[in-house]
Structure formats: C-alpha cells, structure tokens
Amino acid sequence: MMNRLILPLMLCTQLALAAEVAGIRVDERVKLGSSELQLNGAGVRTRLIFKVYVGALYLPERKSGAAEALALRGAKRVSMTLLRDLTARQLTDALEEGIRANSSEAELAALKERIDALVATMNEIGSAKEKTVITLDFLPESGTRVTVDGEARGKPVPGEEFYAALLRIWLGQSPVDAGLKKAMLGQGG
Known about the structure:
Structural class: alpha+beta
Radius of gyration: 17 Å
CATH architecture: 3-Layer(bba) Sandwich
Low-confidence stretches: 1-18
CATH topology: Chalcone isomerase
CATH class: Alpha Beta
Strand content: 25-35%
Mean pLDDT: 89
Shape: globular
Number of domains: 1
Largest sheet: 7 strands, antiparallel
Oligomer: single chain
Order of helices and strands: HEEEEEHEHHEEEHH
Helix content: 40-55%
C-alpha cells in the first residue's frame, strides 16, 4: 500500500521540479507554428558567478544526446528568460562567441551573412531587462525567428544548418555552459 502512494508523489515532485528553474516557470509544451514541442530540458546559464538566464530547449520529441538533438528535423525552440539586465552587445557577443567556438572556418564563412542578420536583429532589441523572454525558434518553412516577450523581431534567417549552428552554442563540443548543456538534454544540471 505504501509503495502505491510513494510512486505517484515522486512523479508529482519530478513534474513540479521540471516546471520551475531558478524561480522561473518553464512550460512543459509549446506550440510553434503547426508543431507542438515538448520541453527537452532546462537549466541556468552562469557566467563566472552570475546567473544570466534560464535556458530551455524544446524539441518535437525528447532526445538525451547532443548529436540526436542536433540531427532532429522540424521545429525547435531555445528559450532564454533573463535573470539580469543585458545589453544588445552582451547578447550578440555571447551568440557570436558560441557559434565561433562550435563551427569550422568553412561553416563560419558559409553562415557569415546569416550570422550578421541575426546580430543586426539582436542589436535592434537594444537592452533587455531581467525577466525578458527571448526565443530563438526554428520553423522549417521560414527559418530562424527571434521573439522578445512573444513579439517577433527582424526577418527570419533561412536554413536549418544555421539553426544547427545556433543550437551548438548550447549543445556543441564547446558549449557556452557545460551544466546548461546537460540540463537542456534532460540529464540534470
């Protein structure tokens, strides 16, 4: 009898923990275009000792390996809920640094115009305040879309290979934060 009570309580506890990270509510599912995505994992991005944002990865199906997640086709989302104020320069520098650290020279050359387009969009955002939600969505029909608190910014950046380069910021061989990579892959954090 006791075991039948403990298991449901344990499951409820796990679900509650998955729905909140560092005091930020993280949705279990999101609708993106015509696709429903599920939370693959979420964690906190720290830089030095500072908590920067809660990062969450949404995929059509859960994947625990970086290679599997990167190879997955279809709509995807990375959501960043800021835990501190950031300038556009801080955002763009971090994105560019992450792409450079996880891409070959040939990949960088092939993606240069699209990286520049993303940087321009991020610069238009200006500064972002604590609790701002920035999403990087991939929609197969149009490409990578940036939203700030649900409002689309800039033009979509075409190409699934571009979004894969973005995902490698968090899931690549040199991730921006190894603990966040594990958390986004649902491996704890």
